Amino acid sequence: MIALAIYFAAMALCPSSHAFVLFRTDKTLLQKSAIARPLLTAPPSLKQPISQRHRSNNIDSVLHATKSDTPFLSPSYTDECDVLVLGSGPAARAIAALLSSAKNSKQFDILVADSNYDRRWAPNYGVWQDEWQSICELYESFDMPLGKECVDRLWLKTDCFFGGSFDIPVEDRMRLERPYCRVDRDALRRTLSPASEVVTENGGEGNANYRVIRANHVSKATAVNVYSPSGSITHDENGTIICLQSKDGEVTQVRSKLIVDCTGHESSIVLKDDRAKSIPPGYQIAYGMLVEVDETNSPNKDYIGPYDKEAMTLFDYRTDHFPEESNELSKAERAPTFMYAMPLKENRIFFEETSLVARPALSFQECKERCMTRLEYLGIKVTRIEEEEFCYIPMGGPLPAKDQRVIGFGGAAAMVHPSTGYHLCRAMMGAGAVANIIREELTNANWNPDRAAARAYNAIWSPTNIAQRNFAVFGGEFLMKQNVVGLRGFFDGFFKLPLPLWGGFLAGWPGLPNNENHETWFYRLVFGLTFVSKLPISVALDMLGSIATYSITQGVPLPQSVTPLLGLPDGYDYVDKKPVLGDVAAKIEAKKMIQESTVEEIIPVAFDENV
Fold first, then answer.
1. How far apart (Å, rounded) are the C-alpha atoms in residues 517 and 85?
2. Which pTM does this prediction carry?
3. I want to staple 535 with a disulfide (CB 3.0 to 4.6 A). Which of 82, 151, 540, 591 is the partner?
4. How far apart are CA 517 and CA 505, in angstroms?
5. Closest Cα to residue 64, out of 75, 55, 53?
6. Helices (H), strands (E): how many in the chain?
7. What does the pLDDT look like over 318-358, one tens digit per residue?
């Protein structure tokens, strides 16, 4: 949730940004050949200049590098690959690592493009232990094991504080018996990277087999499969030509069968569906800092303030650190934030003051000031700030438009949980399904990039998964309208549900533990009815009223997610584009009559060519 922080400039799971350039180029021919065979040797050294790279002699690709038809973009180099992955955050490296794995003795040429590939990942990632274990099992099945070093802290307990409302004492601690982990972002980054691109520190790191180019795309989608500048991305029946620009201005033209865009929620080349009715995204905003604290006068060094060092604090929604009737308290009650705390080793701890979801977004400065005010009130003295984190996570919003050739993944495909902001586990689990589909399509003798892209999107957003997301989108909208009292009551009731119910809602993705308890309309209905019974009366009544209002104003999505009456939403299944033949019998008759006519001699083209 909170630990999936995304730096403001980086957006979601990609540390890259994009620029626009204009150059000149010439025309060349596209040569067609057989479908790619499995790669039998490792990719060439990734430290070579791009101009020296070459594909293994064991690969015979259907796609060969060409120059674009535009007179404005002039590439210095060309390259080709089976799949081009844009971005290099966790979503990008996860899908690239699985696509390039040697699973079933099949390996493909995968190219990762990001001018900021060497930049360290910024966020502190927090995950439930059982969810992480399920991801480890998935990656093991791809011969891409995630070692123990990918987790640097495990808490066997998770704490919450919801006191101050509904007769809950301020000091009351709700303890969840569910272990929580902090992912070692550096170890995970090294594990999902090729050995030639990172300095490995543990066994199992550097196992990925993709290649890297330090360059970004230069394009902006203006309509589905149409891009500016002209010729910067061009699709055809075999794949795609795309221009990439490095920081020093060199342009490389890449020929790829498929492109997977992992550049974040605000991707410039994956369009959102503006035809389907949807609500704009909300935003999770947080200010975080990794600090050392002064424990000289601590009465109990098992705690840092009220925070148990052996527990991860998921929520502290208390507001007793603000003076009564103060303007600060009034603002905090109307636009709530909570503290999220990860005790690390000895006196080191990560604090993050978080606005769960709001539209418009809460100010970063407001989060920072509230964080400092809370710590001062709790008697926690910060002696050193090692890192600061600025978390910006769009939540909800429209899904990708259909029929796009570029496959959005991660934030670009709106995979962030619309109620919680959780993303890392969803993206890493989702990478397995998408990789399996793409690998299957790459070995299909009847190669069709439109079908491959559609099937990949459907692996992300199947009708069942869209229905589950629609349920969670309502949850995010309800949370946005709550003041601090409503949120305390909401989460106090939420975590009083059986763990499989609340755990499944937080997972919200096929393959993650407990998600099976939310995958059908019936299970979601049972969850909703049970949840309402756990809520304080005022919050329960507000929720029931919100359900009615939302269903009236937003239409089908919520009722469709909890009843069988309206079926399932439309997915992204590929629909074969059949030729338009018209009425063949009528055209045959007309052609014959014209041929027999003593007056008419010219047969219309439509009658002559399509019959």
1. 33
2. 0.86
3. 540
4. 8
5. 55
6. 15, 22
7. 999 999 999 999 999 999 999 999 999 999 999 999 999 99
